[in-house]
Amino acid sequence: MPAPTPLPTTALGRTGMDITRVGFGAWAIGGGGWRYAWGEQDDAASVAAIRHAVEQGVTWIDTAGAYGYGHSEEVVARALADLPEADRPYVFTKGGLRPVDGDPTLEPRRVGDAASLRGEVEQSLRLLGVERIDLYQMHWPADDCGIEDYWPVFQALVDEGKVRAIGLSNHTVAQLDAAEEIAHVGALQPPLNLLHRDAAGDVIPWAAAHGTGVIVYSPMASGLLTGAFTAQRAAALGDEDWRSRNPDFSGEGLARNLALVDALRPVAERHDVGVGPVAAAWTLTVPGVSGAIVGARSPEQVDGWLPAASLELTEADRAEIAAALTATGAGEGPVL
Q: What positions carry a catalytic annotation?
């Protein structure tokens, strides 16, 4: 079988890393039993999904210490364990979320304490089986201290060789400004999809102006924009699936969102792809976005979104999508 055609890549800011336009998101594969779980998962299928993504040319994986509180990182390590160094993708992870009283089912604490962060880094290095993390990100702003307290810790990790580059996830423009005065923000990870577009109007332009790479998460709105989601499927989400508690997946919000999906189908048909790749590719048209994190729990799901890596939406496509956003009233944020 011939090798897959190499996927397009772009620079991740000034980190020195070139990445494919889509990366493998390892949130869902964290398994069940924690606050933002997607329910129990088949680890063997998760390993197969990661391996398939890498074999198809995807060059990076995004995980976090909080995804199953270590389980996602363990699964990523299993998937990459026997790959030759030249074939290994970049591995990005995050810290700063800790369980309350040891109970992973409760809302996690947002912790920026230096000792806590250093402990998380050491655990991530061990679970991932690596000597250096390619990109280490603060998952959310800390509640116990300010960015002036935890961001210097991240720079120290770079200086010590434990981390190659550092980034911030879910931070505001004001917090990014404060961080940049201390050390360069190598990468930014905000949510961005057709339903949640606010980042396109504030933090992403900030990143573009400061040479900061941007990897957006939930480009397909946690499954809503794949084209396979239905009202019946939303109603059947189990209590262990965090989406059952999210307003995007119920009531009038769900109805508007599914109407938008139907409006995207003609665009997908013109490009001979699914709705999911169109939704993910839309995020890549936003100026300043380097890549999009797309989750999968099976090789088949990888194949479903992989076309987004090279799909180029036309101006006519984008205009049609903007019109659909206006007509359906789906989501929030600027209509681009």
A: 67
